[in-house]
Amino acid sequence: MPLRIEDYALIGDTQTAALVGTDGSIDWLCLPRFDSGACFAALLGDGGNGYWRVAPAGGHRLLGRRYRPDSLVLETEFAAEDGVVRVTDCMPVRDEHPDLVRRVEGVRGRVRVRTEIAVRPDYGAIVPWTRKDGGRLSFVAGPDTLYLASDLPFDLGEAGCPTAEFTVEAGEVVDFRLAWVAPQAPAPARVDVGAAIERTERWWRDWAGRCGYDGEYRDAVVRSLITLKALTYSPSGGIVAAPTTSLPEQLGGVRNWDYRFCWIRDATFTLLALLNSGYDDEAVAWRQWLLRAVAGEPAQMRIMYGIQGERRLPEVELEWLAGYAGSQPVRVGNEAYLHWQLDVYGELMDALHQTRVRGIPPDDPAWDLQCALMEFLEEHWRDPDNGIWEMRGPRRDFTHSKVMAWIAADRAVKAVEEFGLEGPVERWRRLRSEIFEDVCRNGFDPERNTFTQFYGSKALDGSLLLLSAVGFLPADDPRMKGTVEAVRRDLMSDGFVLRYTMDEHTAEVDALPPGEGAFLPCTFWLADNLIMQGRVEEGRELFERLLGLCNDVGLLAEEYDPAAGRQVGNFPQALSHIALVNTAFHLRGDRGPIEQRAAAGRSGRGHASANEPSALAAGSRPEPRRSANGHGPDSAACAPAREAAPAGASGTGGSGAGDPAAPAEEPVPGRPREHG
Ligand SMILES: OC[C@H]1O[C@H](O[C@H]2O[C@H](CO)[C@@H](O)[C@H](O)[C@H]2O)[C@H](O)[C@@H](O)[C@@H]1O
Questions:
Q1: In CATH, what number is assigned to the domain containing residue 309?
Q2: How many structural domains comprise the chain?
Q3: Is the interface score ipTM higher than 0.85?
C-alpha cells in the first residue's frame, strides 16, 4: 500500500523539490530542476524506482512532524522501542550544487536507525554505477552523478541499494548530504550539515517575514505562500503548477498529468496572491519570465511554457512506472501546450494591469506586447477554444473563456483611461461591449437562471464562480446568485465543488473517461462568492472545512475524493494554495498591504484603482464603481448589459456592473469594505 498523497511533505530549494513521506522515505526528487528526470520515483512505482529512507530499524511509530516555523525545514519524529529520534530534512538554497541534507538526532534513549538509498535516474529507469569513494558514495548514470556524503560504513548490497545501520543516543547527530553534480564536474566539497540547515531555516524565515498578511488564519496563509515560493524556479521567475507528475485525479484512473511547467493561468494566479501579500520582487521576476516567454508573434503565444520559457513540451508515457496506486499512464510533458485557451489573454492583461495598479515600476516593452496581443484577440476572440480545464475534446465556446476575453479588453481600456497609455481605446471599448453582450446572450440560460459551461450547453462549470471576482458582474447580481445556487445544487459532492458536470455528455467535451475528485480551487471560489454576497459566515464555514482538508503540515493537492476521504491529484498544487490565500484575504476584508499602499499612493488621483476587481486577486470588489469624473469606469462595458443582454438576463440584472443606471455602490451587507 503506497502512502496517501497527504502523507507527504514538501522540501525544496526554489529550483526543484522533493516529497518526504511519513515513513521517512523520500519518494520523489527531480534533479537538477523541477522538470528533470526523477532520481527517486517510488511515488509513481515502487522502491525499485528510487527512494531514500531514514527511519528506526525496528518497530516504531510516527510521533509527528512539522515544519520549523515559517520555513521549509521539515522535522519528523519517530518513537522506537528504546527511544525517540528526529529526522530533519531540507534542501539548502542553492550555492553550487543542488543538494538535500538529512540530520538524524537522538531525542530520547537509544534508537537503532536504518537508511536505504536506491538512486534511480531517469524516472526510476536506470540503476546507476554505485561505488564507495572515501567518505562518500557515488552514483553515476549518463548525465547524472550524485554523491552521498556520510561517514557510515555502507553496505553496497547487490541490488544497487546501499544500506547502513547505526545507533543514536539522545543528543547525538548523524548527518547525510546528497548532492547532484554536472557531468565532468568534481565531487563537491563537504559541508557542515548543521550549518546548512540553520542557513536554510533562516532564509525561509526571512522570506516569510516579509509577508504582509497578519489576519486570521495566518499560519495557513504563510504555509501556502511558502509553498508557492517553493514552486518558483528562481533562476527564471517561472512558477510551476506543482512539483509532481501523474498523481491521479481519481485513484486508479487515467487523469494523470505532468504539472512541472508554467501555465500562464496558474502563474498569474500565483503572482497576484504573492503581490497581495507584499512580495513585489517575485512579481517583477515573474513579469520578466512572462515577457521573455511570450515574446514574439502573438499567434505563437502558448498557454504554458517550460520553466525557462521552453515552448515544446511533448507528452510521453513512462511505461515502466506502475503509477501511483496503479494509476496509469504516467505522463511526462503535457499535450496541453498545443492548446488554444482564450482565458490566458485575460489573465495576462489582468496581471500586468495589477502590477501597474499596485505601483510596480513599468516595463515599457510590456505595453507594446499587450497592444499586439489585443490586436490578435480582436481577430480571434470568437474562436472556440479548449477552455480553462484544458478539454481534450473538440474546441467550444466556453463561457469562462469569453469572459476572460472581456477582461483583456477591459484592462486594455483601463490602461488608457487610468494610466495614460496609448492605444485605440474606442475600438477596445466596442470590443468589450460586444463580448459582454455575446456572453450574456449565449452563455446564460434564462430558464434556469445560470451561466453555463459553454454556449448552448446545459452543463455547469466551477469556473463560472470566477465571474464576479473578475468584475464581469457583481456577486449580488441575480444572474450570479442564480449561478452560485445552481452550482451548490448540482455541482457539489459532499459539500465540495466539482470542476464541471459529469454526465453522459461529458466525454464528448473532455474526451476522458468520467471520474475525478472535487476540485479544491473551485470550492474556495464558492466560498469567495458567498463572502462577496454578504453570506460571510457561510463562506467562513466552507473555508474552514477546506482548511480541514490540509494535511498535517498544511499542504493541499489539487482535488479531494470525498468518498475515499483522501487528497488526489498533483501535490502540493499551486492553484489550491493560491485559492486558500485569496479566500483568507476575502475573509479578512481587504486586499493586503500592497493594495493599501497603492491606494494611499494614488489617493491624489481620486480613483479607486487600488481596489479594482482582478480576475484572480483576493478580495476583488465587483460592485459597479464611479470614477473621479462620476462615470463608472465600467460604463462602456455596462452599456451592453442594458442594451443587449437577453430578456431573461437583463430582466434580472438591473443592478449589475452591466447597468450604468445602477445606483451608486453600496457595499453588500457583510461584504468587506474597501480601504483607501
Ligand atoms: O483535465 C484535463 C487537463 O488537466 C490538467 O489541467 C489542469 O491543470 C492545469 C495546471 O494546474 C490547470 O491550468 C488546468 O486549469 C487544469 O484543468 C492537465 O494539465 C491537462 O493536460 C489536461 O488536459
A1: 1.50.10.10
A2: 2
A3: yes
